[in-house]
Design a protein that fits this description.
The structure holds 2 protein chains of 2 kinds. By secondary structure, chain A is mainly beta. Chain A has 3 helices and 8 strands. In chain A, the strands form 2 sheets. Chain A has a 4-stranded antiparallel beta sheet with strand order 1-8-3-6. In chain A, strands 2-7-4-5 form a 4-stranded antiparallel beta sheet. The model of chain A has no long low-confidence stretch (mean pLDDT about 85). Chain B contains 3 helices and 8 strands, in the order H-H-E-E-E-E-E-H-E-E-E. The model of chain B has no long low-confidence stretch (mean pLDDT about 90). Chain B starts with a helix and ends with a strand. Chain B is elongated and about 60 Å long. Classes of the chains: A mainly beta, B mainly beta. The interface between A and B is large, with 56 and 49 residues.
Chain lengths: ~200, ~170
Amino acid sequence: MVSWRAAYARCKENAKFQTFFGRNGRIPKEIDFELRAYVLAFESVDPAETDGTPGPVNGPLTQEFALGAVILGVTSGCYLPQQTEGDVDYSPSRNQGRRDLYCLYFEYTNDEAITQPQNVLGAAAYTTEQQARVQSEALTGSGLENEFPQEIIVAPSNSISVSAAALIAAPYGTTLSDLCVHVVFHAMVPKEAWFQ
Amino acid sequence: MIKWREAYERLRGTPEFTKWFGGSAPMGAFRFLAYSQQFTGVVGSATAGSPGTVSGPTPQNFPSGAIILGITAGCYQAQQSEGAADYAPSSNVGRRDLFCLALQYSGGEQITPNGLTMAEALLGGGYDTIFPAKEIMVPPSQTLLCSVAALTPSTLPNLAVHVVYHAMVPRAAA
């Protein structure tokens, strides 16, 4: 996660930042922003059909930022109920947030991508949007050492869309519950008082 | 977790800090205090993965005001009976993938505007600056409200969730 202080120091020189948040020739100070943690919850992400290949796409869900925002970090985690005794011999994931079990895909609402389509081994160059989805552990990590993203300045009334897809499929002959995925945007937003 | 010095330097010139803690209060006029809340018997959800019955909101009062540098949480869940499952419901060190939190000021202003959020995604392990990304300054006698809900199915044992607010508070002598 990007530190608040570093993000502000970088952003205050940025023309977009000054346009989006400036008032009467002044720009807000570091302390004129406050923290908001926005969450998008995907409560029922279907299992994949083939293990390791992203399954049905859930979303996109849209997170709106009414006053604009500077996003310092995006973190996520998922919950997967235990499978029935005897289906498997061990847990499907030992990751702290089970972030190895699903993919995420981010884009601005004007279709500009944040995560680029990827080159898949054995496939023809850049492929479908489906394959642009990236395992969450690889993309966002835990938010501790990974810095995803470097801060993103979001214009007032703009939004970011997120979609999710599972990488885990049901073991042969058994069932697997849907995944619940939560995605959190840790954001600096201008205090309402700044606009008054 | 926000560094003590960084938080102090950011806040000391603000009107709120001056009003609540005195404009000339040096860094040594504050001490560390860990406030905590316990939510016992948090029942599971009828639909695993969707937040169950909400426990709270429970107010956490800060009589002398506070500067919250970090919020961490963990839960305890009793072991299941032999044969119920072949592996543990969570591999997370604080089992933070098993429950959700929602935080707001007592005035109704939200810290998590969209409501209940999985604790692992929201808080992480509490290292670095995972949550909150910036210190939260709480006026004297103001409170924060915290709500908890389980993501686990109701067939599993209830959860005991502890939430800790790591705070700078003014020394009584100051």
